[in-house]
Amino acid sequence: MDPIPFRDYAATFVASLSGIEERTRHDYERDLRNHILPTFGDLDIRDGNVLDRVLVRTWVNTLQHGVADPANPKQWLRRPLAPKTIQNLHGILFAILQDAVEADPPLRTSNPAARTRLPRLDDGEGDDEMVFLTEQEFALIRACAKPDVRDMLTMFVGTGLRYAELAALQVRDIDPFGKPVPALRVRRAWKRQADNTFKLGPPKTKQSRRTIALSSEVMDAILPNIVGKGPKEFVFNSPTGSWWRHSSFYDRRWIPAIDDACSRGLTKRPRIHDLRHTHVAWLISESIPLAAIQRRMGHKSITTTIDRYGHLLPYVDQDLIDAIDRALTGSLRAVA
Known about the structure:
- This protein is mainly alpha-helical.
- It folds into two domains: 122 residues, Orthogonal Bundle (DNA polymerase, domain 1); 147 residues, hpI Integrase, Chain A (Orthogonal Bundle).
- 50% of the residues lie in helices and 8% in strands.
- It has a three-stranded antiparallel β-sheet, with no helix packed on it.
- Helix 1 packs antiparallel against helix 2, helix 7 runs antiparallel to helix 9 and helix 7 packs across helix 11.
- It is globular and about 70 Å long.
- It holds the Pfam family Phage_integrase.
- Belongs to the 'phage' integrase family.
């Protein structure tokens, strides 16, 4: 029986996936090429003696720890990858091998990627990835930014919108006279295509289609940017009059503002997306329920909100202890 190279089976699997965007398919192909095929590509997908759990675990360890250059230990032949990236890559490998298990007739009796222990996302990774700004720190960044994007920054931190959502906002999405308060509707987002161009499409998930209440300060930042514009014009425009591409905004506005703020005493280097994290942190600091935050942020599940931001709730343990003490005190009095 002729072997079935893993690379051929994987290529067919990714090409035949349904229900995904072409950009996602492009990303899967890139991840296969860069991280999975160098280890598994030439193997026979049916060979359980070689393509086994030991090989999968060894591959995961290599992704986690990287490969140093023997000639120069300070250089990398392959840099270590973040836990989240490793989990994503393992997910692709698992799906390919599971497809081989479920083929008709089956090509394998078991999936060697099943039950692989992966690097934890909470071993300090979340703290390193997310940066939360105080009101004073945000005010400093805003003051250091060029005037033509200060309203955008207020909008980011005041709504928690993702960059692709905010950059896609059109005048018709804003309801300045909404009841009981002004609001905006998230109905579209910019999507990167396989050829690196962008097009407008639906938001990230079904839950991302949402209505967000706007504070008076956020409305003050919006109104000057929609006066005299038509319904389908973008709320925020670059100096050329087009929508703000992320790379352009990042290089020409965000990084110069952060560099300037750091020269004035800022000790953090936040990403644009950290304004979204900061928005959540400010809501939590005001004791806004996590279920309300989930809806506002467009998270698919409350679990996502809790896993990502639950550590910002230091008062919860004390509340639990107080509740237990009250219950125990009541039960002891009843017995007495």
